[in-house]
Fold these 3 entries.
Entry 1:
Amino acid sequence: MTLDPAFRIIRLMAPIILPPLKAAGFDLIWFGMLMTIVMETGLIHPPVGLNLFVIKNIAPDISLRDIIWGVMPFVGLMLLSVVLICIFPGIATQLPDQVMGVVPAR
C-alpha cells in the first residue's frame, strides 16, 4: 500500500512543528487544514508536481504542457482557499467547533 507523499511529509513533520505552534497559541485544526491544502497544491504544481507525472504516464498521448495548463485552475483555487483560510480562519474551524462544542446528552 502506497501512501500519499503529502501524508508522509505531514506525518514526518507534525511532531516537530506542532509543539511550537501549540505554544504560540495557533489553532491546530486550522493549521492542519492549511498544511494539507498546501501539501496537495505542491503535488499538482509544476515543476515537481508528482501527480503531473502520474497523469502523464496514465495518458501518454497528452503532452505535459497540456496537463500543466489543465491543473492551473485547480492550483489557483487552492491558493485562493489558502488566502481565504488565512484571512477568515473561521472557515476552516466552524464545523469542528460546532461538533466539539456540543455537550453530549447523558
Note: Residues 37 and 93 are 14 Å apart (CA to CA).
Entry 2:
Amino acid sequence: MNRPNIPVFFAVDDNYVPFLAVALESLVAKISDKNFYEIRVLYTHLSDEHKKPLKKYERENLTIEFVDLNEKIDRIANKLYTRDYFSMTTYYRLFLPDLYPTLTKVLYLDSDIVLLDDVANLFNIDLGTNLVGAIPDGAVASVKEFQDYVELVVGLKDYHNYFNAGILLMNLEELRNYRFQVKFMYLLDTIKFKVAQDQDYLNRLCKGRVTIIDNCWNTMPGADPDKRHKNPKLIHYNLSNKPWHLDNIPYEEYFWDFAWQTDFYDEIRKIKDNYSEEQRQEDIQTGIRLVSLAAKEADCIGDDRK
C-alpha cells in the first residue's frame, strides 16, 4: 500500500531524552495506518544508550532516524547565541531546508509536548506559497514588554502575528526558493536577537508569509486561562510550565498519563522530586530577567507606531 509520508523532526540532547520519549509515546498512540511516519531526531550530543529506548517506538508504519549535526554546527557554533536554559538544539530546525533538499514540506516539534491527535492532521494543513505555518505565541500576547519587543526590535507590524517556533510546519521548497539559509546566516552576522534567538530570526525572515494555525495545535499551560484551548490537540509545556518540575500545571494529567508508559517514568519522577525551591526561584528570576531584557531592547529603538 502506497501511504503518504509524514516527515516529523525533533531536536534533542541527552538531558531531554526522557521528555522526547513522552512526546513519542503520545505521537504513536494517535498514528493512522493510512500514513507512513518518518521521525528524525536531530542531535549533537546523544548517547547510544539513549537512542535504544527511543527506537522502541518504531512501528510497521513509523521509522526513527538519528541525525548527527556535529559537523554542521561546529562550522558556525561561534555565531550561535544562547541564554539561560536554552541549548544549541534550538537552532537545528533552521537548517532543514538545505539539509533535506528532496523534501518539500516537514513538521518540526519541540520535545516538551504531548499529542492528543494524529500529527498527520497538523502536517496536512495547506501552506500554499507561505514559508511556514505556526501558532501565535501565547506568552507574547500576555506581556506588554514582549509585544513592544517583537514590533520594535524583531520588526513585526502586529505582535499578534508573532509565532512560537516550537511547533513549526515548514515549506522547505519555498524556503529554499527564498534562500532562507543564506539570509539567516547574513542576519547572524548583522543582528543579535537576545530574547528568543532562533524564534526571533524565524519571525523576522518569514513575516508576511506565515499561515496562522489554530492554537489547539500549540496549547500552552502558561497562556491566560481564557485563551487556553478547551479541546487541545497538542499541549506545549514551554518556558517554566513543566509538570516534571511543578504541581498544578494546567494539562499536567496528559503528560503523566503518557510518562508512566515510558521507560523513563522513574527518572522523570526523580527529576521532579529533586527539583528544589532554589531551582524554582531561579526559574522565576529567569522569567523576570527575560521580560526586563525585552523592555531594555525595545527601549533602545524609537517608537513611531502612534
Note: The chain has one domain: 5-299.
Entry 3:
Amino acid sequence: MIRIYKAKDYNDLSRKAANIISAQIIMKPNCVLGLATGSSPVGTYRQLVEWYKKGDLDFSEVHTVNLDEYKGLSGDNTESYRYFMNTNLFEHVNINIANTNVPNGQAVDPEAECRRYNELIRSLGGIDLQLLGIGHNGHIGFNEPEEAFEKETHLVALTQSTIEANARLFDDPKDVPHYAFTMGIKSIMQARKILIIASGADKAQIMHDAFFGPVTPKIPASILQIHNDLTIVADEAALSQTDLKGMKNSDY
C-alpha cells in the first residue's frame, strides 16, 4: 500500500511529515525512529521541535537510529550527521542522548562497526518508522545505484554525483568524504512503516522513476514500492511529472 500526500510547498510538506512522526510517538511513546539527514527533513525536525516546546510531544522514551554517517568524521565535526542531528533535533527536545544512535564515522574496523550497528537495530526490536529522503539518482541513505541491493549496514564508496551534491556543505570541496557507513536496503525495508519526503522540481523525474517505474537496484528507492506500509509526502513540484489520478492503491 502506497499513500501519497501532495503538499503545497516545503512548509506544508514539513508539517504533514511531522504530523505522521508525531502520531507515531503519541501512539507508541517508546518507539524506535529511523532518522535521515540532509536538507529535506530540516523543516520536519523544526516542526517537531515547535510542537515539543508547546507541550504536545514527549521524546523521553524515544530511541533513534540514523541511516548513515560519513567515514572519517567525528561527531563534533560540523559536517557530520551526528552534529546535524544534535543541532537540528536532539538538543531541542527532551530525548535521552544515550538513546540516539548514529554510525561511528571514526570506527577503526569498518566491518565490526557495521556488525555492531546491525545488532543494535535488532536489539531495539527493529524500527517502527523510518524517515527517508531521496537522492537525484534514487539513493536512499547512501545506498547508491548498484547491480544488486545491499542488505544490511555497510561501508559504501560514494558516487561522484553524490560527492558533488555534498560539496556545497563543505568549505573546501577536497574535504568532502568519499566513503560513508549506511544502513542497507534490508535494514530499511524491515522498518514497520516508511515515510519518504521530497521537495522541488529537481526531484520530479526521480520520483516518477522510483515509484512508477520498475523495481531495480539501478534506482535503489524503487524497492520501496513493495513495502507494505509506505507513505510519500511530496510537494507539487516534486510530483509534477507524476500522474496520481490513475493510481488505485494510493491516497492523495
Note: The chain has seven helices and ten strands.
